[in-house]
Design goal:
Radius of gyration: 19 Å
Distance between the termini: 57 Å
Structural class: mainly alpha
Largest sheet: none
Order of helices and strands: HHHHHHH
Helix content: over 70%
Length: about 180
């Protein structure tokens, strides 16, 4: 019995799941930048102070989306070349990609100037999660992830050198992730 259609349906389901979360994150980022309406006549509809964070968010989300979609296509599009056991790898990849897209949603809610620590802390967590996923993927079935790991770690180092690490991981920032500082 040929299960090709069933396998492709499962692959598409997981791919659509992280695409939906990405879309929600992108929509939320723009809602943080442009209000639905001004509550008072003197209130701003467009919060220009959030533009730098919005631009960095957009610059990050598109390569991640493209990379995830490309990886799914390269790894799961041909039933004859699926990693074995494909169900284990598909579940691992899908959980990792859903976690990463959820981190983008967290970032989309932290575009204001007073939440920069949460924003950049989430970027660092995203880079670590993606690097761990890439290393496991490469080790288990030789996925094309070494370039992404190198980019993630390079960008993380630059980000750490350009920001006050103690401020990013302060008690207030950790609380945004639901972590209670001692």
């Amino acid at each position: 019995m040929d299960h090709t259609k069933d396998i492709m349906d499962v692959v598409k389901f997981f791919q659509y799941a992280f695409i939906i979360v990405f879309a929600l994150a992108l929509g939320e980022a723009f809602k943080q930048f442009v209000a639905e309406k001004a509550n008072q006549p003197r209130d701003k509809v467009v919060d220009w102070s959030r533009l730098p964070a919005l631009l960095s968010f957009v610059v990050l989300i598109f390569p991640f989306y493209q990379g995830m979609s490309r990886y799914f296509f390269a790894t799961y599009a041909d039933v004859n070349t699926l990693p074995k056991p494909y169900s284990l790898y598909l579940m691992f990849d899908s959980v990792a990609f859903l976690a990463e897209s959820a981190l983008f949603f967290v970032m989309s809610r932290a575009l204001s100037e007073d939440r920069w620590r949460s924003y950049y802390g989430t970027v660092l967590v995203l880079l670590v999660v993606d690097s761990i996923w890439g290393a496991v993927s490469w080790y288990c079935h030789g996925g094309p992830t070494t370039v992404w790991i190198t980019l993630n770690l390079s960008f993380a180092v630059v980000l750490l050198l350009r920001t006050d690490v103690a401020a990013v991981f302060s008690a207030a920032s950790l609380t945004a992730f639901g972590i209670r500082a001692p």
